[in-house]
Write a structure and sequence with these properties.
The complex is a heterodimer. By secondary structure, chain A is of the alpha/beta class. Chain A has twelve helices and twelve strands. In chain A, helix 5 packs parallel to helix 6. Classes of the chains: A alpha/beta, B mainly alpha. At the A-B interface, helix 2, helix 7, helix 8 and helix 9 of A face helix 3, helix 12 and helix 14 of B.
């Protein structure tokens, strides 16, 4: 009965909007943990672009649980999605559920977090590229000396990817003794207050020897800055990622060096376009930007669309304002005159 | 009189407090040796005090909740929500330049916390829903609300005046005031001990041991806080504001519990609900008040945490309830109700944080830290069981 109604509505739409709606697809997305600043933006971009293309979006939020995510995916399949986007909470544990979708003939796109499966297409800001961008930006201002690493949640593959990218850049320098990693800590669930306590304790242990803090995201960077302020360490090179409003403000103030900005609207639109291409029966591998990710250990080759993050420093804050990500007022809130060029005038 | 005899004359409650104090000292000394003298550095003591204060403050409330044979699983979420309410009002809604901004948002936050506590207390005491259920629901509801009102955003920075509560650059007493406050605290403390000795509540050995330990600890801590210099000055930080808030709250609540009828009621409710009702204890009102207090303390904890981080984030306080319950249990609170100690809970919070901080100092990974703290939790209750069976 319901199915019939759906078909009726669809054909009515087809008549109304022409040929495109004939290919209207239902796209499902399974979020890992929706309650973070960025995913709201992802969903909006995804939904807007899909609507533009005449498709429909269904969502489910696993709230940080692998079991719930498996159930969510089954639920989305039961609701008849044609394409499935998955942000894996645990990218290993989600594979059986993903396999079920593939077995049902539903193509799966791993969104933002790579799921290592030969039949899954990956689209996202590659955490390895993020980690490299962070390390490169810090090396530019602090090419040698004592580095502290504040890493993300240890259970999170994404945190390991970022770490791997950071080490790609600084690893060789550590080996030849240019850089010394004097302390490193994983941070439970990427929590800022945990990063703050860890940083305070690291400062106690290492004191003034710290030359730079390679921090994996902006939330934790806020904890690191608070810890450094208390100890009177100002203006140390510090990295982040996400382009949080608070972080952009810190960059203008000079208390954070960079943030690896992932314009997630670009990602959302990109994923929507891929879903659209699948619905229209196009060959993804022939699309621009396609590449192959190879995991030699697992013997897996998969189609991937990696996106490069933008390195935001005090010199190009304008970019984010132009993109409508933040307002000038937010960037310059409380910035003392003479600190940042962008906030003068 | 040998040591053994002295120990035997001690009340089990007092023995537990002394044992906790002793384990704290042992932990400190061990970590100091392992870290090459870092643990006893002024900076570490300052950080330790600030890092422990929020959990310790919430533990004060949690101990009372547990004594009445209830539990509160929602403290982390309530802290997160009240913190977010304060952050949004102060940073987004009210004018940034207004002097009345932060005091008003502070007051609203404290009221919001109390109202949430009253709501949960009402459901537990008057509607009769088990506290486990009410506060489990609260954990979900208030975390969800936090996200709804913030849309996942982080709010920062707070007004300068608000930052006095966080124990950072603006948040400490300075050297002179610290000695004065410390002196007053010592006089109050020793006075209380002496009163207990006269009334026969405390034995002479406990008074001597406890008094000695407390005085030494207080003087040592203040010495350390003053020795930790503000950046680029030789002025000491002094007592950090979160510790001061903790001390004031614990003293005030402790006075009520030990001196006012409502304190005896709290224990009576937990020991034997029916008996308490029969002798005319206003059981429902007692439980309501305890939950309201818990809500208020969550709000105070939110003020400390947000002021310290200088940001309101959506995951502020997640999993905090577990640390708080662990601290209460290590401090001797019994989940069967009727038994628990405020001072013990505070010491429990310091034990957990000392272990965590010490392990970071010597570079232990976070997963190993979790494992050890888990074992300490079991160990503390195990030792306690043995002690209870013996006496």
């Amino acid at each position: 009965m319901k199915k019939k109604a759906k078909t009726l509505i669809l054909s009515a739409l087809a008549v109304a909007t022409g040929a495109q709606a004939l290919l209207a697809a239902t796209v499902g997305v399974s979020w890992a943990r929706f309650q973070e600043e960025r995913w709201v933006t992802d969903e909006k971009a995804l939904e807007e672009r899909l609507e533009e293309l005449g498709h429909r979006l269904l969502t489910a939020d696993a709230r940080g649980s692998s079991t719930r995510q498996a159930a969510d995916i089954e639920g989305l399949l039961a609701r008849g999605v044609d394409v499935l986007l998955v942000v894996g909470h645990d990218t290993q544990a989600v594979i059986p559920a993903v396999q079920r979708a593939l077995d049902d003939g539903v193509p799966v796109i791993a969104y933002e977090r790579q799921i290592k499966h030969p039949d899954v297409t990956y689209v996202g800001f590659d955490p390895v590229l993020v980690g490299r961008a962070q390390a490169r930006a810090l090396l530019e201002v602090q090419p040698d000396g004592n580095y502290v690493l504040i890493k993300g949640g240890q259970q999170d593959q994404y945190a390991h990817g970022t770490y791997q990218g950071q080490m790609d850049e600084i690893g060789p320098l550590v080996e030849d003794g240019t850089i010394d990693i004097i302390a490193e800590q994983w941070t439970t669930d990427w929590k800022p207050e945990v990063a703050q306590a860890n940083m305070e304790n690291i400062i106690t242990a290492q004191g003034d020897r710290i030359d730079a803090v390679l921090c994996s995201n902006d939330g934790m960077a806020s904890g690191v800055v608070a810890a450094m302020e208390q100890a009177g360490l100002v203006g140390l090179p510090l990295s982040g990622q996400d382009g949080d409003v608070a972080a952009v403000n810190r960059i203008a103030r000079g208390s954070q060096t960079m943030t690896a900005w992932k314009d997630v609207r670009v990602l959302g639109r990109r994923a929507a376009d891929l879903a659209d291409a699948i619905a229209k029966g196009k060959d993804l591998a022939s699309l621009p930007g396609a590449t192959t990710f190879t995991d030699e250990e697992l013997g897996i080759e998969q189609l991937a669309f990696p996106l490069d993050p933008t390195t935001i420093t005090a010199n190009n804050l304008e970019l984010m304002i132009e993109a409508g990500w933040v307002t000038r007022e937010q960037v310059c809130r409380g910035v003392p005159p003479g600190t940042a060029e962008i906030c003068e005038s | 009189m040998s040591w053994h005899d002295v120990l035997r004359t001690l009340d089990p409650r007092h023995k537990r407090l002394l044992a906790l104090g002793a384990s704290l000292v042992v932990i400190w000394v061990v970590f100091d040796l392992l870290s090459g003298g870092l643990f006893f550095s002024p900076r570490n003591f300052y950080n330790l005090a600030v890092q422990s204060s929020t959990v310790a403050l919430l533990t004060v409330g949690m101990v009372l909740v547990i004594i009445t044979r209830n539990i509160d699983l929602s403290v982390g979420s309530v802290l997160g929500l009240t913190g977010m309410v304060i952050a949004i009002l102060q940073i987004e809604v009210f004018p940034a330049a207004a002097g009345w901004n932060w005091p008003l948002t502070l007051a609203i936050g404290l009221i919001a916390g109390t109202l949430i506590g009253l709501w949960q207390g009402f459901l537990v005491a008057y509607v009769g829903i088990p506290s486990f259920v009410v506060t489990l629901a609260g954990l979900l509801i208030f975390r969800g609300l936090t996200f709804e009102i913030s849309q996942g955003q982080t709010f920062s920075p707070f007004q300068a005046g608000y930052r006095i509560f966080g124990g950072g650059q603006q948040g400490s007493l300075g050297e002179a005031a610290s000695w004065i406050v410390g002196g007053v605290a010592l006089v109050v403390l020793l006075g209380a001990l002496a009163r207990r000795l006269r009334s026969g509540e405390a034995s002479l050995p406990f008074t001597l041991l406890g008094g000695l330990f407390a005085s030494a600890l207080t003087l040592f801590m203040i010495y350390q806080f003053n020795a930790y210099d503000r950046p680029r000055t030789d002025l000491g930080y002094g007592i950090p504001s979160p510790l001061l808030l903790l001390t004031l709250a614990a003293t005030w609540i402790g006075l009520f519990v030990n001196r006012a009828p409502v304190g005896r009621h709290v224990y009576a409710v937990g020991q034997n609900l029916e008996a308490a009702r029969l002798v005319g204890v206003p059981v429902r009102r007692v439980v309501l008040k305890v939950f309201a207090l818990m809500g208020l303390l969550c709000a105070v904890g939110a003020v400390i945490t947000t002021s310290r981080l200088n940001a309101g984030t959506t995951n502020l306080g997640t999993l905090l309830e577990l640390n708080v319950i662990a601290a209460a249990v290590i401090g001797g609170a019994s989940l069967d109700g009727g038994r628990g100690s405020i001072l013990g809970g505070i010491l429990g919070a310091f034990v957990i944080q000392s272990l965590d901080t010490g392990m970071v100092l010597i570079g232990v990974s976070s997963s190993l830290r979790q494992i050890l703290i888990g074992f300490v939790l079991i160990g503390a209750v195990w030792v306690d069981r043995i002690a209870v069976r013996r006496s």
